[in-house]
Amino acid sequence: AYGWTDYYDLNETYGYLQSLVEEHPQHVALYVGGRSYEGREILGVKLSYKEGNPKIFVESGIHAREWICPALSTWILNQLLTSTDSDVRFIAENFDWYVFPSTNPDGYQYSHTTDRMWRKTRTPGTSCDGVDPNRNWDDHWNEGGASSNECSEIYAGTGPFSTVETASLADTITELNPTVYFSFHSYSQLLMVPFGHRYEMANNYYKLLEIGNIAAVSLSKRFGTQYVVGSIIEAIYEATGGSMDWAKSKLNVTYTFEWELRDKGNYGFLLPADQIVPTSEETLDSIITILRRVSLAL
Ligand code: 0X9
Ligand code: ZN
């Protein structure tokens, strides 16, 4: 059975989403967020307790080998549905959640069957396969921190939205027009806000940074895990054509945050499964802090 003491492959993850719909039909529905090169659905759920809530889009697992991301996303869904904690109930019931645990399904499956360290999509190339789905969005595409070389891990693709995963996800996000955008990656313990293309500030950079800083304090309280907060280019490196930069600059999503989850390189992408629950717990603490502040501002 699905749980959080182990990592699960794509079918098991999608099976879990299905089981949530069966167990909580009034609050959960499947939601197809896009499709993959190999024809898989980018499957997510809509979780909603009432009408008229602001929307949260959760983009998780866009990089195949970052296995903590799908695991954390389903753990959070389970909390939103079953927790009796008043903070969790508040964020569950006062937002509509669109959660996509594995936004690169071909790559995720490939990382289970063939190459544990696979990062990109499985879009075929001439000499090497795969596009970096966090360099393929239509915002300052391939202007820096990205590559035109097919064989690069940060290959930007042949043009903006050249691969169907990012193009179809972008359509879904545009249609939903969320108020909040959360993106989950690993690893490095960073909480980032736009942008990654240059030293340019988001229109609400100081607000995002202020919220991010208090969220990182909340995150640290449970186990002492330290996060660095900043814009992408400050906190990590230059990276163009990323999803969050697109959401901020093209859709003007107000609250945009991107986590690089545990750890800081000891295990890296191979984070042991016994860290799924603690990682998820502390991350949910930061999410609660963010959403408490968001709902005060709305
Ligand atoms: O390089 C990336 O895509 C991210 N790091 S990772 O190790 N998970 O691959 C950081 C990306 C920064 N974010 C954006 N450019 N949106
Ligand atoms: Zn990543």
TrEMBL record:
<keyword id="KW-1015">Disulfide bond</keyword>
<keyword id="KW-0121">Carboxypeptidase</keyword>
<keyword id="KW-0482">Metalloprotease</keyword>
<comment type="function">
    <text>Involved in the digestion of the blood meal.</text>
</comment>
<keyword id="KW-0964">Secreted</keyword>
<dbReference type="GO" id="GO:0005615">
    <property type="term" value="C:extracellular space"/>
</dbReference>
<keyword id="KW-0645">Protease</keyword>
<feature type="domain" description="Peptidase M14">
    <location>
        <begin position="6"/>
        <end position="294"/>
    </location>
</feature>
<feature type="active site" description="Proton donor/acceptor">
    <location>
        <position position="260"/>
    </location>
</feature>
<dbReference type="GO" id="GO:0008270">
    <property type="term" value="F:zinc ion binding"/>
</dbReference>
<dbReference type="GO" id="GO:0004181">
    <property type="term" value="F:metallocarboxypeptidase activity"/>
</dbReference>
<keyword id="KW-0479">Metal-binding</keyword>
<keyword id="KW-0378">Hydrolase</keyword>
<protein>
    <recommendedName>
        <fullName>Zinc carboxypeptidase A 1</fullName>
    </recommendedName>
</protein>
<dbReference type="GO" id="GO:0006508">
    <property type="term" value="P:proteolysis"/>
</dbReference>
<keyword id="KW-0732">Signal</keyword>
<keyword id="KW-0862">Zinc</keyword>
<comment type="similarity">
    <text>Belongs to the peptidase M14 family.</text>
</comment>
